[in-house]
Design goal:
mainly alpha, 134 residues
Length: 134
């Protein structure tokens, strides 16, 4: 038995401007504090104080440090995806005309047939001139 989930009607609700500013402050503060030392030693109070917001504002959106860490990871993943989809080469699509570059082959393309005495495969004996022996 499968259950179909309802689709949301329209785009997700837009984030209020003050909420977006607070989110950006929290994530910037947490990123800095996590990078400066031991992330497990950073408290929610440290993050709120560094972000310049109240504890209630912080806890309303993020119940714990793990939720902030997940939000940071999500921000970094979104930025990477954006660079992959729309950024400049080498990460993003490239070329002067904006077209995606052709995929690179990891295998050399032979331009001439192998010479006699050169194995065609590591497990095969070398080729010899003349007729095959049976």
């Amino acid at each position: 038995m499968t259950t179909e989930l309802p689709l949301a009607d329209g785009p997700p609700p837009r984030e209020r401007a003050d909420a977006a500013r607070n989110r950006a402050k929290v994530l910037a503060a947490a990123e800095r504090l996590f990078a400066e030392g031991d992330p497990t030693a950073v408290t929610m109070d440290d993050i709120a104080r560094t972000a310049g917001i109240g504890r209630g504002t912080l806890y309303r959106r993020y119940p714990d440090r793990a939720s902030i860490a997940r939000a940071l990871l999500d921000e970094h993943e979104r930025a990477l995806q954006e660079r992959l989809l729309r950024g400049a080469p080498p990460l993003g699509p490239g070329g002067a005309d904006g077209a995606a570059p052709p995929p690179r082959s990891t295998h050399p393309t032979p331009t001439t047939p192998p010479r006699a005495g050169t194995p065609t495969h590591p497990t095969q004996p070398p080729r010899t001139s003349g007729s095959p022996s049976t």
